[in-house]
Amino acid sequence: MKATQLFTDPTHSLSPRDLYPTERVPGARLLVPCAPAVTDFLGLGVAITPSACHELQKMEPAERTALLTHLYGKDGLGLSVGRICIGSSDYSPELYSYDDVPFDTALTHFSVERDEAYIIPTLREILQIRPDLFLLASPWSPPAWMKTGGRMCGGYMREEFLECYADYIVKFIESYAKRGIHISAVTPQNEVNTQQAGRMPACIWHPELEAKFICLLKRRLLEHRLDTRIWAYDHNFNDTERVLWSLENCPGLQEACDGIAFHYYGGAIEETRAIANAYPSLALHFTEGGPRLNDHYTNDWCKWGLMMARAFKVGYRSFCGWNLMLDETGGPVIGPFGGVCGGLVTRDTRNGELTFSGQYQAYRHVSPYLTPGAKICYLGEGESAGIAMSKYPRVQDPIEGLLITSPKGTAAAVLINPNEQAVQAQVEQNGSLWYADLPANSISTLLLSQES
Q1: What is the pLDDT of residue 392?
Q2: 222 and 320: one domain?
Q3: For tag attachment on the chain, is the N or C end more exposed, with fewer CB atoms within 10 Å?
Q4: Is residue 340 domain-shared with residue 416, that is, in the same domain?
Q5: According to the model, what pLDDT value does residue 452 have?
Q6: How many CB atoms sit inside 10 A of residue 67's CB?
Q7: Terminal CA-to-CA distance of the chain, rounded, Å?
Q8: Is cis: bond before 336, omega within 30 of 0?
């Protein structure tokens, strides 16, 4: 009996090795399931931002179709979740809402027509490849006239426009539905705690105002017979206390929202376990985080492998990265983060060359095995081989990973070694101990159900 290890490191990409079961190797790190299994995972994905759509539409149709088929097709990466913007975000070529006529509370001028240029065509093409794509939609700003300051960039949401804004979100969902695009979930606001100093589309929401709006929007969705879910918060791990306070103190919020969304820019994902413990019926979702253009862009697979593993440790139900595609400068962008963020894929506008990020490489090791009904467990070190303090501070980081078991019984173990040296590891599956050498700075997928 043998299995296969597929590993990616600085000089290899999904390179195969044969694996064989062995007895226990005391010096090897033993990886064992350490958390309850996730069995109803929505999937992995990225944000299909206006900037991503804009850049995709510059490609030759056949080239674009080939790329999207690889990313979303079931014989490729198989991404099954996408996040889109309700109006402009900081990763947009243009700045607009769907009703820029001041104080049009009847929304008579509401229109998504500007999305027809490059956003809606891109979404339709992706949906032809992946008809069951789960789409989350998030606004970066309400129309300027609904906010303090009267601008889309910066400001605070004004309570007097809550009902009008609920109607605005419903109109967006219905307008996209008429164009064949089903919105499965929404968040009321991207990053409720910041106005980004007025440098980009943004809006601050007080916790009680956010809760009141979620309850109001839920009623509107039910009145219009829309099955769209509402995920609250949509900001960083390090303000978990805000979410807990809101759920405890805002009447109706627990019943009105279907989940809580988080970004990774502040704090640790383990902080959010407090929500999972206190409110197990509320699903947690990772909704934003992507590679940095000039910071290990093509080889940060360990970072994203660890981020996914820890999300499953806490019990997250979806994982969505940031921009699907950006150009070689990290744009187009409206805001202070030009040249900072990279896409899952980069397209050089000068020659059309595509470059794939380390996040993409990490997805290649995980996404193909997240089939419907799969059981996903976090893997951690069940035994410690001991750390020699004479090596301090060059100690080894722990090895973490995932064990993904399909309904058919096949198993894939994804192991991340972020250390600067190779590490010995073992995984137990169905009574067999599998031994693998994990190269330095690598992510490996062990396909454990193959027999010869």
Answers
A1: 67
A2: yes
A3: C
A4: no
A5: 39
A6: 18
A7: 6
A8: no
Say if residue 100 is in the same domain as residue 189: yes
Note whether 11 and 124 are same-domain residues. Answer: no
Inside any domain, residue 311: yes
Q: Is 82 part of a structural domain of the chain?
A: yes
Looking at residue 20, which CATH number applies to its domain?
Answer: 2.60.40.1180
User: Considering 344, 369, 394, which residue would you say is the last residue of a domain?
Assistant: 369
Kindly state the average pLDDT of the residues 298-312. 98
**Boundaries of domain holding 392:** 3-38+374-447
8 A C-beta contact, residue 441 and residue 12: no
What's the average model confidence in pLDDT over 238-257? Answer: 98
Residue 304 neighbours by CB under 8 Å, 6+ apart: 291, 321, 358, 359, 362, 363
Q: Are residues 114 and 49 in the same domain?
A: yes
> Could you tell me the sign of the dihedral formed by the alpha carbons of 61, 63, 64, 66, in that order?
positive
Q: How many Å apart are CA 415 and CA 431, to the nearest integer? A: 19
Whether 299 and 379 map to the same domain: the answer is no
Q: Is the pLDDT of residue 385 over 90?
A: no
Judge if 260 and 407 occupy the same domain: no
List Cα–Cα distances, 176 to 37, 54, 192, 328, in angstroms. 35, 18, 24, 30
Give yes or no: residues 89 and 194 share one domain: yes
pLDDT at 451: 45
Give pLDDT tens digits for 419-449.
Answer: 999 999 999 988 899 999 999 999 999 999 7
Instruction: Using a pLDDT cut of 90, give the percent of the chain over it.
Output: 93
Chain mean pLDDT for the chain: 95
pTM of structure: 0.96
Choose the weakest-confidence range: 19-28, 132-141, 151-160, 229-238.
Answer: 19-28
Supply angle C-alpha 195, 164, 245, rounded to 5. 50
Where a domain ends, among 332, 348, 369? 369
- Tell me the backbone φ, ψ of residue 333, rounded to 5 degrees: -150, 145
Q: What's the structural domain count of the chain?
A: 2
